[in-house]
Design brief:
Blueprint lengths: L1 H28 L3 H10 L13 H8 L2 H9 L14 H7 L3 H9 L16 H7 L3 H10 L6 H6 L3 H4 L35 H14 L3 H9 L13 H7 L3 H9 L15 H7 L3 H11 L4 H7 L2 H9 L3 H4 L2 H13 L2 H10 L5 H7 L2 H9 L7 E6 L7 E6 H7 L3 H9 L6 H6 L3 H9 L14 H7 L3 H9 L17 H8 L3 H9 L13 H7 L3 H10 L7
Antiparallel strand pairs: 1-2
Helix pairs in contact: 1-2, 1-3, 2-4, 3-4, 3-5, 4-6, 5-6, 5-7, 7-8, 11-12, 11-13, 12-14, 13-14, 13-15, 15-16, 16-17, 17-20, 18-21, 20-21, 22-24, 23-25, 24-25, 28-29, 28-30, 29-31, 30-32, 32-33
Length: about 550
């Protein structure tokens, strides 16, 4: 009986602390320093309490509020207190490029030489360099350049320091690769064992130089044998140079032999694809103009019919009827270039059923079904996986048509015998079928092979009735829409898909965070990136904010 009472008291105390902790988080978010101080003085244990893997000091550091940060530190918060992964507030601030926060933490005794649980060498400086936060890195380097190795020197652009890791014959010394056990900022990045391989050490250093826009460091490493096409960090140095939107750095890498057509391991995208996703129009057009000279799909994307015609003349009809021709034709149709579409069709290019379904080409769907293709045809797509590289998954033609709201195509596929599962039923607003699947034992938040729930699929299909039904049955609108901890939520999916006002109103009533950030950004950023202007306007009306607001 005594043991039970002790456990009850501990549980009650913990529950109370959670409530107080959550109240403190509100004060941090609202920058209410005075109210926060009253709370922690009444309950000092809050300073060391960890909830959702982090302390109040971590949250204050991430919020960037110097006033609440000062309150916590002056009242005794440990500036080196670890989160669940042994990361300190200093490492959090470094990963967010919050230089003033870094200064304040160090002034209160934070140790810039401390590594986290990710491995030896995972200091705040390395966190800053890994994310390409050069400003934070430059500040931290004034306090301590730790660890001392080639990739840190390269990330800082310190050629003078880099030179000490080469002997008189320009060979790497043993010190160049020391203290490199830390490899990734969190478990969503791919894991890779660190090797004492000289080429890998060089290639890692080149990526660190490109993470941080260090042109001289990149030249120095390329001259000493760094491989611009290596992928020590799931992508090539060229991908990272493109992400920094630095054409001069891109040119340096291409002059050294960087391959524009290499895809990264996480998203299976070329550097040009990274530029396009990042809305870097100048960079995207620059790379596309080069790629268009030798690749049919990219020549179509460039819109240059002469280049397309030239490449077609150099291709066999068999090639045009193959995968490359299908991709090129899909690109022409999606870009609305009827002239190039006709050139490709005349040359023998045809869509696959799944592509035709995805873009709503009823003529192609009817033709292909008439040719005997199964209505249950699938398309292979790459799916990013946390902590690993992309894997191949199959998606049905019917689901593609449903989430893209192509009603005629859906009817044709259904009439031809296409199978309906929970996710298709959700996207097609089939309430009774969705209810049957759930009543039959499927969990309301069960995910498909892409990590998406029926709610996510219903939102994509703008299936208002199913969205309402699923929310009433307890579907979680804050569940990740992929397998990433920081993945998009239901409202991000709605923003990307151009959801209607009724769907957005249902999500708002369910308590979604209109300004919550994910790997894809905020909901408003998602809508603007996908040119969903009407949805963006509704989001703003409901209180969503952009960086300019």
């Amino acid at each position: 009986m005594i043991v039970k009472w002790v456990l009850y008291i501990r549980h009650a105390k913990n529950t109370y602390m959670i409530e107080e902790f959550e109240q403190a988080l509100i004060h941090i978010e609202d920058e209410e320093a005075a109210e926060l101080e009253k709370l922690i003085q009444a309950e000092p244990a809050l300073l060391s309490f960890v909830q959702e893997d982090a302390s109040l000091l971590h949250h204050a550091a991430a919020a960037g509020s110097l006033s609440v940060l000062e309150v916590l530190l002056e009242n005794g918060a440990n500036p080196d207190g670890p989160d669940a992964c042994s990361s300190t507030p200093l490492q959090w601030a470094a990963g967010l490029n919050l230089v003033e926060v870094l200064k304040q933490l160090i002034d209160f005794g934070a140790d810039p030489e401390k590594s986290d649980a990710g491995g030896e060498g995972g200091t705040a400086l390395v966190h800053a360099l890994f994310y390409g936060h050069s400003e934070a890195a430059d500040f931290l380097a004034t306090r301590a350049i730790v660890p001392s190795n080639l990739r840190v020197a390269a990330g800082l652009g310190r050629v003078d320091l880099m030179e000490q890791f080469f002997d008189e014959l320009c060979n790497l010394t043993d010190d160049a690769g020391k203290h490199r056990q830390w490899y990734r900022a969190n478990e969503e990045f791919p894991e890779k064992p660190t090797r004492d391989d000289h080429q890998e050490i060089l290639d890692e250093a080149l990526c660190y130089a490109c993470f941080n826009n260090r042109l001289d460091a990149a030249r120095f490493l390329l001259e000493r044998g760094a491989n611009p096409n290596a992928k020590p960090f799931y992508a090539t140095a060229l991908h990272f140079a493109v992400a920094k939107d630095n054409i001069e750095l891109v040119d340096i890498l291409m002059e050294a032999g960087a391959d524009l057509f290499i895809e990264d391991d996480n998203h299976r995208s070329t550097p040009q694809g990274w530029a396009e996703w990042g809305c870097q129009d100048k960079m995207s057009d620059y790379l596309l103009s080069i790629m268009a000279d030798s690749d049919l799909v990219h020549s179509v994307a460039s819109g240059d019919s002469n280049k397309v015609q030239k490449l077609i003349s150099q291709s066999s009809k068999r090639e045009l009827m193959g995968e490359k021709g299908k991709q090129a034709l899909l690109e022409a149709i999606e870009s609305g270039n009827e002239e190039i579409e006709k050139i490709l069709r005349d040359g023998g290019a045809r869509l696959c059923l799944s592509s035709a379904a995805a873009i709503g080409s009823i003529e192609d769907v009817e033709y292909l079904i008439g040719q005997g293709l199964s209505p249950n045809s699938t398309m292979t797509v790459s799916v990013p996986v946390p902590g690993s590289h992309a894997v191949e998954k199959e998606i049905s033609a019917l689901l593609l048509a449903a989430v893209n709201r192509h009603e005629k195509v859906c009817r044709k596929l259904l009439d031809a015998g296409a199978k309906v599962d929970l996710y298709v039923a959700a996207a097609l607003n089939m309430v009774s079928e969705v209810q049957n699947f759930i009543d039959g034992g499927l969990e309301v938040d069960a995910v498909d092979q892409f990590g998406r729930t029926a709610l996510h699929r219903a939102i994509q299909g703008d299936a208002v009735d199913v969205v309402r039904f699923l929310l009433e049955r307890g579907a979680d609108p804050e569940r990740s829409a992929d397998f990433f901890s920081y993945g998009p939520r239901a409202v991000h999916v709605a923003a990307q898909a151009g959801a209607s006002r009724p769907v957005l109103e249902l999500l708002l009533a369910a308590g979604v965070d209109l300004n919550g950030s994910s790997n894809l950004g905020t909901p408003l950023e998602c809508a603007l990136r996908e040119n969903q202007d009407e949805t963006a306007a509704i989001l703003k009306e409901f209180g969503a904010e952009s960086e300019e607001d």
